[in-house]
Structures are given as C-alpha cells and as structure tokens.
Amino acid sequence: MSKNIIIALDFATGDKTLQFLDLLDPNLCRVKIGKELFTASGPQLVRKIIDRGFDVFLDLKFHDIPNTVARASKVAADLGIWMFNIHASGGRTMMEAARESIDSLGNQRPLLIGVTVLTSFLKKDLEQTGIHSYPEDQVSKLAFLARDSGLDGVVCSAAETKLLRSQIDDKFCLVTPGIRRPEDAIGDQKRVVGPAEAIQNGSNYLVVGRPITSADSPNGALIEFNAAVSSVNQTLN
Ligand code: C5P
C-alpha cells in the first residue's frame, strides 16, 4: 500500500481530531495538520497523532529570515513528523538553511516541501507584490529554485501538476490539494481533479479534506480514494 492520500485534519480542536482519527487506520493514509489546529493544540497533539502511528505533514508554511526558518525547521523535524513545508519565495538562502538544519537526522529526516504561488493568487495579486509574471511561470521558477536549494518537492494545484511534471524530474515530489470524486461537493476549491487523474498527471501525494472528513463513513471514503489511486499505480508500475 503506497499511502498516497494525505487527509487534511482541518478541525478546530484536538479532541475532535482524535475522535476522527479513531475511525481511521494509519496504514491506509497519512494526515496533515495546518495552522488552525496547530495554533489551537500545538506540538502535544502532533506527538499524540504520531504515537497513534500516523505520518504527519506539518503544514505551517514557514517564511522568515534563514536563521529563524532553520531553527523552526529543526524543532519541527525533532517532533518526528514525516513532511513539512516552507515558502519557496523565502529564497534560496532560506531554503538551503532549512535543509541543512535537518540533514543531521539522516534518513530519519522529514521530507521538506516548498510552497510556490498560493492558489488564491491571480496575476493581479502577483503584480501588486511587484512580480510581473504569469502565476504558472512563477510556479515553475520557484519549483526549480526549490529543487536546486535541496527541497524534496513542492505543493502544486491540480491545474499545475501536469506541466510541472513534464518540466521537472520524476524524483521531485508533487503534493496536490483540490481533489474531488464526481459525487463530492467542490466547496471553495476553484479547479478540482479526481484522485486517479491527479496521480496520472504526476502527483505523488493527494491532500484530501472534506470529501473524507465530512463523509458519513470516513473510512469508506478513504477506501474509495485509495482504490482509485491504486488502479492508476498498478498501470504506472
Ligand atoms: O477540504 P479540502 O479537500 O478542500 O481541503 C484541502 C486542504 O488542502 C486544506 O487543508 C487546504 O488548506 C489545503 N490547501 C489547498 N490549496 C492549496 C494549498 C493547501 O486546498 N493551494
């Protein structure tokens, strides 16, 4: 089982999160903790979830001066997380410092992932920050900068995956949110793709929130997502 599904634990409290995790098998998925839950429940909750056997993606998107990001990265890595992320727009020196700070953990180190252009950004938003490029060009530029700075991959939208995979080597990891089955509500996502299509387009990990967290049977929904992914994995392998 290749565990390509990362469930976004977008809950307000640690108790709700742990109740939800009671329903899931850590051999069938990984999980993502973002800013809301981490701010509410902190490293203690992260440790509890890891103790239950789940691989944790800590989605805190660090962006600061290199020394600060490096120190925060080492503290995050020491929690025993599986993956975390930083903003690629923080620049090469910041990304290299983050990578160096976790290298001492050897093959126990978490995967380090870059955030390129937020999907909420349109061309006009980039212009307002002084960047006169199309979002997709800026995404590619930052993905290559992340790779050359020692990062393991980037978060990219469903719409960006195919192009990015055609440009960048297979070992570079693509993590994709905005995944929906035909029967799922789209919610506030703008462009979505199905789980099988996302893997076919070259994503390695799919971040799925509400289609699983709000399902009548979260475990049933997870099994369906896994089945869709493994049907493609079998043809790709
Ligand atoms: O519920 P849903 O499947 O839309 O959740 C997607 C998760 O991925 C959320 O935690 C959201 O913050 C995250 N995400 C996203 N789009 C991005 C980056 C992260 O939806 N560009």
Indicate the radius of gyration in whole angstroms. Answer: 17 Å
Through-space gap between termini: 13 Å
Bound molecules: cytidine-5'-monophosphate
Spatial shape: globular
How many helices? The count is 10
| Amount of beta strand | 15-25%
Considering DSSP H and I runs of 4 or more, what fraction of the residues is helical?
40-55%
Order of neighbouring strands in the sheet with most strands? 1-2-3-4-5-6-7-8
Oligomeric state = single chain
Mean pLDDT score, rounded? Answer: 96
Compile the SSE list and pairings:
Layout: E1 5-8, H1 14-21, E2 30-33, H2 35-51, E3 56-62, H3 66-78, E4 83-87, H4 92-103, E5 111-115, H5 123-128, H6 135-148, E6 153-155, H7 158-167, E7 173-176, H8 195-200, E8 205-208, H9 210-213, H10 218-236
Parallel strand pairs: 1-2, 1-8, 2-3, 3-4, 4-5, 5-6, 6-7, 7-8
Helix pairs in contact: 3-4
The site of cytidine-5'-monophosphate has 14 residues, from strand 8.
Molecular structure report:
The protein is an alpha/beta fold and 237 residues long. 46% of the residues lie in helices and 15% in strands. The chain contains 10 helices and 8 strands. The chain has helices at 14-21, 35-51, 66-78, 92-103, 123-128, 135-148, 158-167, 195-200, 210-213, 218-236; strands at residues 5-8, 30-33, 56-62, 83-87, 111-115, 153-155, 173-176, 205-208. It has an 8-stranded parallel barrel with strand order 1-2-3-4-5-6-7-8, surrounded by 6 helices. Strand 7 (173-176), helix 8 and strand 8 form a beta-alpha-beta unit. The longest helix is centred in the last third of the chain and has 19 residues, at 218-236. The chain is globular and about 45 Å long. 40% of the residues are buried. The mean pLDDT is 96. The structure holds cytidine-5'-monophosphate.
